[in-house]
């Protein structure tokens, strides 16, 4: 008598409920960890790219300064005047008095350091005009960086924040971010009981915030 051997049927493995729960929790934790890692990488790359961009801008500005420095102080002042800057603003950004500027225009005599400062200012105008297509650069320097504070690029440059001037010109940061980098408490310093709003006819007006 032949005995027929039937193939055995593999038993179905059933994952207990708690094992499924543990698997789901583990997978979720891994996803959260990976997402956090990717966010950190993106933030790091963004910061590194921003630093690299700023370094490139600074190097370009310095090269332009060296080139502009070949011009005599009188010529530098003439070109700055042709851009439309007031002597008061030029004096502030260079760090001297208006009479000193007038003397250089009339008699010359600017020191080597002041000659470099003039060349640096003109080179900055060259940089942001050519790289970011800013027209009438002198009036741009006088324009408030953001609504709610009277701070302008002239103020930034005069306080030694040329990097923020270039960052503002590039458009990579909004005005409020620029102001916060310049003065973290600017909102408190320039808080006002009035606000600017748009009329129905499209005109800008000012009204009390309590109205």
Task: Explain how this protein is built.
With 211 residues, the chain is mainly alpha-helical. Helix content is 64%, strand content 5%. The chain has 10 helices and 2 strands. The protein has helices spanning 17-68, 73-83, 87-94, 98-107, 112-132, 137-142, 153-158, 162-170, 175-182, 186-189, and strands at 194-198, 204-208. The protein has a two-stranded antiparallel ribbon with strand order 1-2. The longest helix has 52 residues, at 17-68. It starts with 16 loop residues before the first helix and ends with a strand. The model has no long low-confidence stretch (mean pLDDT 83).
Beta-strand residue percentage: under 5%
Number of strands: 2
Mean pLDDT, all residues:
83
Order of helices and strands: HHHHHHHHHHEE
Strand arrangement within the widest β-sheet reads: 1-2
Name the poorly predicted regions. Answer: none
Count of separate DSSP helical elements? 10
Our Rg estimate from Cα atoms comes to 31 Å
Question: Helix fraction?
Answer: 55-70%
C-alpha geometry? extended
First and last CA, distance: 106 Å
- Structural category: mainly alpha
* Main pleated-sheet profile: 2 strands, antiparallel
SSE inventory with pairings:
Blueprint: H1 17-68, H2 73-83, H3 87-94, H4 98-107, H5 112-132, H6 137-142, H7 153-158, H8 162-170, H9 175-182, H10 186-189, E1 194-198, E2 204-208
Antiparallel strand pairs: 1-2
Helix pairs in contact: 1-5, 2-4, 2-5, 3-4, 5-8
């Amino acid at each position: 008598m032949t005995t027929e051997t039937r193939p055995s049927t593999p038993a179905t493995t059933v994952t207990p409920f708690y094992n499924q729960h543990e698997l789901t929790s583990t997978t979720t934790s891994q996803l959260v960890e990976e997402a956090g890692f990717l966010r950190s990488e993106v933030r790091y790359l963004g910061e590194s790219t921003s630093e690299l961009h700023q370094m490139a801008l600074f190097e370009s500005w310095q090269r332009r300064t060296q080139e502009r420095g070949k011009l005599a102080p009188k010529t530098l002042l003439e070109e700055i005047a042709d851009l439309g800057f007031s002597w008061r603003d030029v004096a502030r950004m260079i760090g001297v008095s208006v009479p000193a500027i007038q003397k250089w225009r009339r008699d010359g005599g600017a020191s080597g350091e002041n000659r470099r400062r003039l060349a640096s200012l003109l080179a900055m105008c060259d940089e942001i005009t050519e790289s970011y297509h800013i027209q009438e650069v002198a009036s741009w320097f006088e324009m408030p960086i953001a609504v709610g504070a009277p701070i302008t690029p002239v103020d930034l440059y005069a306080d030694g924040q040329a990097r923020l001037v270039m960052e503002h010109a590039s458009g990579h940061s909004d005005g409020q971010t620029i102001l916060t980098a310049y003065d973290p408490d600017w909102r408190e310093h320039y808080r006002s009981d009035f606000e600017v709003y748009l009329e129905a006819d499209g005109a800008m007006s000012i009204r009390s915030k309590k109205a």
